[in-house]
Amino acid sequence: MEIEDKKTPKIPIIESFLDTREMVKNPVQVFEKYRERLGPTFEFRFGGMRKTIVTADPEFLKYVLKDNNDNYHKSHIQVKRFVEFQGVGLTNSHGDYWLKQRKLLSMGFTRSRLAEMLPVQLKVLNDFMTDFEEDASKGKVDIHDQMVKFTLRSVGQSLFGSQMTRGELERFAAAIAEIQQFIVKKVVQPYLMPWYSISGQNKKYQDIRIKADQIVLDYVEKRRKDPGKESDILQLILTTPFKDSGNLMSDETVKVEILQLLVAGNETSTTAAAWAFYLLAKHPEHMAKIREEIEAVFGEEEVNYAALHQLKYTIAVLDESMRIRPPFWMIDREALKDDEFRGIKIPAGTTVVPYIYGVHHNAAVWKDPEKFDPGRFDSKQTEKMHHFAHIPFGGGPRVCIGQNMAKMQILLIMSAITRNYDFELCEDKEIGMHAMMLLKPDGPIYMNFKRVK
Length: 453
Ligand code: HEM
Description:
Strand content: 5-15%
Distance between the termini: 69 Å
Shape: globular
CATH class: Mainly Alpha
Bound molecules: protoporphyrin IX containing FE
């Protein structure tokens, strides 16, 4: 029997049901409509059925993601769909297994590892900039498309090192992207499940997965035979034993983890970088400030890791851009046991949605939330900020493991392009949001780039 709860504002079941189609097409718009009407925390029925509590209240977010995180696992439905295609790894495991994997994989993302990775990252950046110069000199370019190319090479090389060919990486990423789209379809439209089997789609995507797995397994085998001197994450995973047992990860586990890291790190960074360029082009007054800052920190020198954190204004622009357009607009959790937060009853089995876009646009948290204002991330302001007011990378123990790497890569590309080019949008129109798992631009973002040096 459901616990009576008079405290949480609710969307009537019939309205949730009627909104189902719109929810598939444009969930952020529907969530924003509910938030505007009912406040930061509300209940609706996902797909007209599943009891779902959505929250954009920083205190409630802190409770779910940190204070009582043991009671909130990633939702059953998502985990199940992902396991089918990705196996069990860091992003979709829980408990002791998750902790063991997290401890080992974290070693790949420490500041010293990132500093070691920088030379390879700079090589990726310089190669990319040569291609970019050629494209930009011919006329308008789609910055989203450019970021797809950049982040795949950048994240790909951090994970696999430079021995993986561009062709292998692109084939692997294309397979993953196809599978991802299918997983999202299954999560969002679960009622089509019998159709996915009958129509042969399940089989088709499992075949694609088998081929993608093989690319990684072949590469792992090659690397075991010839380790070389790479300091990428694959090398770390292959050579670091677990502390408790002293054993190394099996090839099968290595494959799952590296695949999950690429999935978690590739499109997210692409999306964040594309939105950052879009918002900068819309607010060109910040471009000159970024350029001045880069000049002051690096002069004519090449970027180095130790000084990247001195790019305070550039970092503030990126933070503000991820506030306005967070690549993960929501994440989801499921309550394991009955719980209560400030009178809000959360029965076991309830889906709880930490609504990242919502808290980033919550007027009780942010003054004038729709305004693009990097000044909010000035150190004097951030001291006063609630820790769960700005959570593009999530929060609590499952906070993004790759956040420093992502920031490094995006800062590198923002600095390289802004240092050398002025840019503007080809058309003075808003780029809409296409929200599925990630909050992506709803079409190309065409820009013109003019060299400034
Ligand atoms: C701007 C880029 C990125 C954004 C916005 C982002 C965002 C996030 C968010 C919100 C979570 C928490 C998910 C949850 O709690 O349900 C997360 C987790 C994770 N991210 Fe990222 N991420 C980014 C880049 C990366 C990169 C570059 C990597 C690695 C190469 C990465 C690897 C992961 C992994 C493995 C997890 C799961 C951690 C765990 O469950 O312990 N991410 N990310």
